[in-house]
Structure formats: structure tokens, C-alpha cells
Amino acid sequence: MIPRRTRVKICGITRPSDALAAAQAGADALGLVFYPASKRAVSTTQAAVIQSVTPVFVSWVGLFVDPEPEQVKSVLNQIKLDCLQFHGDEDAGFCESFGLPYMKAIRVKPGRDGMATDPMPEITAHPNASAILLDAYDPSMPGGTGKRFDWRVARQCVEASEVPIVLAGGLKASNVGKAIRDVQPWALDLSSGVESEPGLKDPALIDAFFDEVNRVSN
Ligand SMILES: O=C(O)c1ccccc1N[C@@H]1O[C@H](COP(=O)(O)O)[C@@H](O)[C@H]1O
């Protein structure tokens, strides 16, 4: 499925002003990180304040990394989320157990021969996912690292997968045009590429990113 306009999720929102800047620029979805080790982690209290200032028609995605079920349920009891993003080693049964649409992140590992490993077996293990997110593998952190992976692998997954593919990992204004042209993903997800420092978005970088997405998509 080739989108006429590539959707964009901005992840790791920690401040109301950043949510507003992303919504004004045209973000389709905003991500709230509920992974305590991340510099972008928010409490449900912070998340509720951020959501309260954001205009309608922006989807909310809650990001978790190998959470206990109780953590996810507790967040869902306190704030409204449209989609769950699982960025660890969660299996399909776990991801489906909350009754919400979910996006499964798969981190593309470099293989021994220098070629990236094939994510398709992991993708097909999540046939009921609403989307599969492909991100770079970094042994030190499960995501939000600003690192890229081999986009040729992402293109192969877009062609082979029945589930929409979201491209992530090191996206920024200077490379998003090539990402859209080469990979043709359903959507893009990014955090570091629109930040002045981890957790703090920069409205000028957000605008530059969307300018480029709009230029290439139209
Ligand atoms: O943003 C984080 O801090 C984070 C922490 C743990 C797992 C995933 C995280 N973010 C996701 O990582 C990718 C790529 O981010 P980046 O653009 O390379 O910084 C993205 O999908 C974020 O949702």
C-alpha cells in the first residue's frame, strides 16, 4: 500500500509546547514514552497535561519496552491512548492482550557478513499488528538512538509485508526525502532528529522535517 502522503509520528513528547509544535506542523501521531530508562519518559500526570493542550485529530501512541502487563494497564486506566508501541521483545500474544491496536518495533541487526539480518520472520510473527516499525539495532538502548540501518532491508519489507511498515531510526530533515523515495513506507517515526537535546523538541527542526516530507510527498 503506497500512501499518497507519508504519515508522520513524532515520538518522545515531554512538553505541551512540543506537542503543539508537532501538531501545528502536521504530525499524524504523537508518542509518549513509558519506558523509565529513557530521557523522554513521562509520567501519566505529565502525559495528561500534554494531551489536554493538543488539538483533536492527532493520535496518541504509548511506547513501552518489555513492560509488565500491570504497567500498561495502569497507564490505560489513567490516560487515553489510540495505539500501543512495543519496542522490546514482546510476543504477539502479549501485544494483543490489551485489546488496542498495536505497533511492534523490530530492530534490524547487522549480520555476521555485514548484511542486515532479515526482519521478515519477526514481522510475520505479528500478523495482527496494526503496523510494524523498523528501527536500528543498538545494544546499549532499545530505541531513540538517532541511528540508521540499511534502508534496502526496509524497502524489501515494504514489498513483502502485508502489515504496513513504519520507518524509524535516525530520520531527520536532511535524509527524510531519500527515506520516502527509497523505502516508500506507510509512515515515519522519529524522535532525535527534531530535538535540540534528548527529550526537548526544537520547533524549527520539526518545521524543517515537515517541509521536506511535504516537498517529497506532493
Ligand atoms: O525515544 C526513546 O527514548 C525510545 C526509548 C526506547 C525505545 C524506543 C524509543 N524511541 C523510538 O525509537 C525510534 C527511533 O528514534 P530516533 O528517531 O532514532 O531517535 C522511534 O521509533 C521512537 O519511537
Automatic annotation (TrEMBL):
Keyword Transferase on entry: no
Pathway(s) per entry: Amino-acid biosynthesis; L-tryptophan biosynthesis; L-tryptophan from chorismate: step 3/5
Pfam families in UniProt: PRAI
Catalytic activity: N-(5-phospho-beta-D-ribosyl)anthranilate = 1-(2-carboxyphenylamino)-1-deoxy-D-ribulose 5-phosphate
GO terms for MF: phosphoribosylanthranilate isomerase activity
EC number: 5.3.1.24
Key words of the record: Amino-acid biosynthesis, Aromatic amino acid biosynthesis, Isomerase, Tryptophan biosynthesis
InterPro entries reported for this sequence: Aldolase_TIM, PRAI_dom, RibuloseP-bd_barrel, TrpF_fam
Coiled coil segments of this chain: none
Biological-process GO terms, alphabetical: L-tryptophan biosynthetic process
Record-annotated N-(5'phosphoribosyl) anthranilate isomerase (PRAI) domain positions: 8-211
CDD domains found in the cross-reference section: PRAI
Organism superkingdom: Bacteria
Key word Acetylation present: no
Family: Belongs to the TrpF family.
HAMAP family from the UniProt entry: PRAI
Protein name as catalogued: N-(5'-phosphoribosyl)anthranilate isomerase
Source organism: Pseudohongiella nitratireducens
